[in-house]
Each structure stands twice: as structure tokens, then as C-alpha cells.
Request: fold
Amino acid sequence: MTTHPAETVHDALREEPCEDAWWMPGPDGFAACALSSSARTVAEARRFTRATLESWRLCSSVAEDAALVVSELVSNALRYGAGVGGPAAVCPAWLALTRQDSTVLCAVSDAGTTAPVVKVPDHLAESGRGLHIVDQLSDAWGWTPPDRSGKTVWATVSSVRG
Reply:
């Protein structure tokens, strides 16, 4: 049985110390950044995603879809997974991007131990549609089984839709 790439990312990110790391660029197809709980975090995660995918020379439609997916994953991590305790006080979440050909795996790890829940969309509500957006813009998405260090929610985005 093959390990899903998100499980590998989950293990790698949860072992990294948060203190002095903001981001690790990766021309080799891997990049990660520590996420703070500031009001600018979601915008910074979008910029990081766009800049990384541009440096990997992926098409702009993949970069834009990935940036929106990352926005939703990071928002959910900060809302539902941050502040659980332990290292989350310093680094509430991590964002990792991995590339294989024209596909990007966007993975956000947080300290939360509850699985994401897709809500019935209330079209008049101001929130609650994030995972529906992720589902529409990604080829696939899911999460690693929560463990004592938290979970990783991931989505794949590619220029070739299945």
C-alpha cells in the first residue's frame, strides 16, 4: 500500500520547529511556510502559493485555483484547528505545497484533532461554504487521520481535470 503524499507532508510539518521558520522555498517541487494567527495570514498564504507556483512555472489558472483552495484550507485551520495548545501557540498551522508535473498538492497542518465537516450550504450565510469551494476547484481533497499532533487537510489542483 502506498502512503498518500499528504501523510508524508503531515509527518514532516508536525516535526518542524516553528520558531524561526517562516518559509522554505523549494525549486525541487516542495515549499512550506509556518502560518501565524494574524489577520494577514490568509493573504500571506495566497501570496506564498502564487509566488511558489510561479517559480515552478505552473500555469496561472492552476496558481489561482490553488491560491483559492489554500485560502479556504488556511481559514479553516485557523478557525477550527489553531489554539488547541502546545506548539499551536507559536505556530498554529503549516502550509506545504508539493508539485508533481502539472499537479500541486496543497496541504495545511494544524493542531486540531477533529476531522473537517462539510456543511449543508446556507446561501444566505457569510461563511460555511469553504469546503464546497475546495471540492469544486480541486481534483481531490481529504485529510489525514487526526493524531496527537493534529491533522493535515489537503487538496490537489492540476491543469488537467479528470
